């Protein structure tokens, strides 16, 4: 994946809202300086182990209005020292993903609300 080649150490904000993503693009995992990532209004159905693990500078992650029904307990591994804002608003999550967020020491804002279909 060469989509972000050369931006690994300089790209800080990335908005992929409404781009039809069904999973996290591999190229994003190489953006080590990324601090803000918006993946809203896509087609994610699950968050997998270590999906965001390489994004160790990430402070804000928005996954609103996807179709997420499953959040693996290890989905946010690697973000425990940085992530302060997480939004999973309007997804298919039926219960708060306690296991996935319990190690996020700096989490100040966590919005999880399930969408009724």
UniProtKB/TrEMBL annotation:
Any idea which UniProt keywords this protein has?
Leucine-rich repeat, Repeat
Asked if the record carries the keyword Repeat, the reply is yes
Give the matching InterPro entries: Leu-rich_rpt, Leu-rich_rpt_typical-subtyp, LRR_dom_sf, SLRP
Which Gene3D superfamilies does the UniProt entry name for this protein? Ribonuclease Inhibitor (3.80.10.10)
Checking Pfam families in the record gives: LRR_8 (PF13855)
Q: Does the keyword Repeat apply?
A: yes
Report which superkingdom the organism of origin falls in.
Eukaryota
This protein is called what?
A: Leucine-rich repeats and immunoglobulin-like domains protein 3
